[in-house]
Amino acid sequence: MSQEKNVNSPSTGVSITPAQYISEIILKKWAKWKHIDSSGTFWRRMPFQKMFIFQITLANKLLKQYSARAIIQAINSPLSERCFSLGNKDLVKVVETFSAKQDIVSTEVNTITDAEAKPRMKSFGKNSSLSRLKELE
After folding, report:
1. What is the model's pTM?
2. Which of 38, 41, 61, 83 could form a disulfide with 91 if both were Cys (CB 3.0 to 4.6 A apart)?
3. Three-state secondary structure call for residue 75
């Protein structure tokens, strides 16, 4: 999958890449589990800076295969409650399931809209039912 548009950071409000956004989410999840203050830009401090950079590289690898939406849904799902790294094999399995669900939903939406497209029943202009009633009076 190609990278999507930039998004706003939940902590700073600055425009960032999807890989940075995903890395920020996973590090906040890890900090919450470790009971570490995750206010502001805590990943810029030294112990977290290396982890953040490593998670960005892992996020970029995942973004080549899956959409950012599927990765974010997988991180936030209860199935990956104890996954604190984007390199976790269990998290990758959950991402695959969410990606497959998105593919199924998108193909269903396309087939429904194509198959059930109805032609217009009413014509525009003078031949409407209201104009016919006006002519009868």
Report:
1. 0.67
2. 83
3. helix
